[in-house]
Predict the structure.
Amino acid sequence: MPRSAFAVLTALTCSGLFVAGCGGDRLPVRTYQMGEKVFIGHLIYTVYETQWLTQIGQETASRIPQNRFFLVRMSVVNSGGGTVISPHVTIEDGKGNQFEEVSNGEGVPQWIGYLRQVQPAESSSGNVVFDAPPARYQLRVADEGESKFALIDLPLTFAAETPEILPPGSARKADEPPPGSLKKP
C-alpha cells in the first residue's frame, strides 16, 4: 500500500473514531417505575396512577375516543430558579408506536392542562389524557429544554369493578344488601 494511501486511510479511521467518541457522551434513556420521582433537568416528575375510560362526560355531552381515553395522574415540580413550561409528554408501546397527549381536556377530571407553566419551587398536578388502544405503555418525559429524556413504566391495569346486575323487573330496596352478601341479623 502506498504511503499516501495509508496516511489517508489512517486519517479517515481516526476522524471516524473521534466522531463516534463525541456521540458517546449521550446518556441512555433511563426507565423508572410508576410512583418513583424522576429528576430530569430542573423538572421532577411523579406518576401516581392510570385510568382507562371509554368516554368522558355524561351521555348527551360525552366525548368518545377513537380508541380509549387513557388518563395518567402525575405531578411536575420545578426545582429551578425560573419559570418553565413543562414539555408535552407522549406514551410509547413496545412496538414503537407513540401517542401524543390530547390537547383538549374538556370533561377530563382534574386536567393538568396542555400548556403547563410552572413557577420556581411550585408544582403542576392532575391528569394528562391520551387517545390510545389499551396496552402497556411507557410515559416519555423531558427536561425543560427537551434535550434529556426518561421513561416511566405504566402497567396495563383495569379497575375490577363489577356492577350489580338485577334480573329484569326486579328492584333492590335501598336497605337490602346486594345479592350474594351476608345479611345482617
In short: Residues 5-25, 180-185 have pLDDT under 50 and may be disordered. The first strand starts at residue 30 and ends at 32.
